Amino acid sequence: MTRENKVKSVLVTLNYPDSGKSVFDVLNKDYKVKVDFRSFIHVAPVHVRELRAQQLNILDHSAIILTSKSGVDNFFRIAEEMRVELPATMKYFCANSSITNYIQKYITVRKRKMFTGKGPEADFLRLIKNHNKENFLFVCSNIRKDTIPNFLKNNDVVYTEAVMYETVSSDLSDLEEVFYDIIVFYSPADIKSLFENFPGFEQNKTRIAAFGNSTKKAIEAANLILDIHAPSPENPSIVTALENYITKVNKR
């Protein structure tokens, strides 16, 4: 069975951006391919009682590590539900500038001690190491990379890991009879959601695209055929990879 059939439809396992524009819009505009968006996962808040049961005391810590907007939302939610008044001396270590800017939703940034990663993750880790006398609270999901906790352990940095939100599978039952030529996956959690929703999923002629090595490994572990992958030297982005693939198969 040939897999290089013409592409007419693509499903991206993300929500369409709030901005009203997506990098995937080019597929519809330039290649006349229908592109739908549907997040296979969503964030669910952890109840404050679970953190109280773990005897979490936010004020035992002098600095907070925040790596996502969901982390920001749930940290301040938990602080409010615990009736914690965050002191002006509390330090906030943000993985990038978008997270630092997002915190302004909750506090006045210019009156707080903010530390922001300026580039690669290694830069953010160095920033933390330069303040290794702090007692850090690492706000995270139940699904997270090992990079930060391993770094903290290896550098003898005092920290507490607090799972304040969970990444869970969305209900995709309305897609049961809907088929796409290509499905684009972004994380191992997306693959988990696929099989939780459709235990008997058969790939057949559906092409699968993956962004990132961890997603690629999850696809291979599920015995699915990976047709399109990024980033790579020839395909620095998943959109470029799709454009190159569609150009090739749609001209056949």
How would the global form be characterised?
A: elongated
CATH topology tier name of the largest domain: Rossmann fold
Q: Counting H and I runs of at least 4 residues, what is the number of helices?
A: 9
Q: Approximately how much helix is present in the residues?
A: 25-40%
Order of helix and strand elements from N to C terminus: EHEEHEHEHEHEHEEHEHEH
Assign the structural class, choosing from mainly alpha, mainly beta, alpha/beta, alpha+beta, or little secondary structure: alpha/beta
Main sheet: which strands, in order across? 3-8-7-4-5-6
What's the architecture of the largest domain, going by CATH?
3-Layer(aba) Sandwich
Average predicted confidence as pLDDT: 95
Main sheet: strands, sense, barrel: 6 strands, mixed
Percent of residues in beta strands: 15-25%
Low-confidence stretches: none
Report, as a whole number of angstroms, the end-to-end distance: 16 Å
Number of domains: 2
Number of strands: 11
Name of the CATH first level of the largest domain: Alpha Beta
Return Rg in Å: 21 Å
List keywords for this structure.
elongated, 5-stranded parallel β-sheet, alpha/beta, 6-stranded mixed β-sheet, 2 domains, Rossmann fold, 252 residues
Commentary on this structure:
By secondary structure, the protein is an alpha/beta fold. It folds into 2 domains: 9-40 and 172-250, 3-Layer(aba) Sandwich (Rossmann fold), CATH 3.40.50.10090; 44-167, Rossmann fold (3-Layer(aba) Sandwich), CATH 3.40.50. Helix content is 32%, strand content 21%. The chain is built from 9 helices and 11 strands. The protein has helices at 25-31, 48-53, 69-81, 97-102, 121-129, 147-154, 188-197, 213-221, 238-250, and strands at residues 9-12, 34-37, 41-45, 63-66, 91-94, 113-116, 136-141, 159-169, 182-185, 207-211, 228-230. A 6-stranded mixed beta sheet has the order 3-8-7-4-5-6, sandwiched between helices. The protein has a 5-stranded parallel beta sheet with strand order 2-1-9-10-11, with helices on both faces. Helix 7 packs parallel to helix 8. The longest helix is centred in the N-terminal third of the chain and has 13 residues, at 69-81. The model has no long low-confidence stretch (mean pLDDT 95).
